Amino acid sequence: MHTTHARHLATLVATVAITIGNAFAQGAPKADWSLNDMPSQRGRIFLVTGGTSGIGYESAKALAAAGAQVVIAARNPQRGKETIANIQQAAPHARVQFETLDLADLASIRALSERLNTTLPRLDGLINNAGIMEPPQRGTSANGYEMQFAVNYLGHFALTAQLLPLLQRADSPRIVTLSSIAAGRGALHFEDLQFERDYDPLAAYRQSKLACLMFALELQRRSDAAGWGLRSIASHPGVSRTNLQLNPDGSPTTFARRYLGFLFQTAAQGAMPTLYAATAPDAQGGAYYGPTGFGEIRGPLGLAVVPPTAADIKAAARLWKVSEELSGTRFPTTH
Fold first, then answer.
1. pLDDT score of 13 more than 50
2. What are the structural domains, with CATH classification, of the chain?
């Protein structure tokens, strides 16, 4: 009996060791990774979209405190000024600047890209963070696209393409694109990407975040094929207490965020997957990081689950082609 138990124990230990080893081989971080583990970012330059609040603000603040030069791109210059003051109060030597960007306007994206391509020597990291969530009424961007699709996904697709030359000037450029646990129940509605026929706020949000995840994975595949030298990584914050736009119609999502917020992570905790992806030497291109607790709502940092829909390579290629057409932006050819 003792021998049998010993064998079972040995088998269990070996299995656990293999599982842990495989996880690390796939780029799994240590569960208690924190800002104390972040290496110095001195000499690196980052752009963070939507960096005036929530996950973006926490990411920008942590990067600046670690010595990076940080460009915060968002819509409101006054909030940008206040954000810079707050960051510099916490880290007096922080190098941070604000640039106006409206991700719902392709002209604004192009203008920012042109400014940065001429004023920055390179870009070491791009954090595609900005987003909106479940506006009750269907809105459209300056270019006529459904607002969540435009802001959360298409704007970041265009921005990444236009900043690619600047990123390629860096030694080891990284692009971190934020998705969401909502992507797991999302679908790409190719027959009606803009929800013109029957607008559903939650379905549109899920689609936009699924598109973000698929973009991050496809970008790594194309970089590998074409030799762009990028490390494209996806992350999600679980469910964090941020000021993502709330739907006032009494939806379950709004109810949970308003009244059950004590169950969720702080924005600073929610930023850990993004910061790990952006700075950790062991972060892997093509990986997806997030909380690993129940439902990935909160909990220790680790590898997030990639839903089967996000792993559909043919759908990702189709989305890429459509996105280039809609945004009028082209990445270099992979051939």
1. no
2. 38-327 (3.40.50.720)
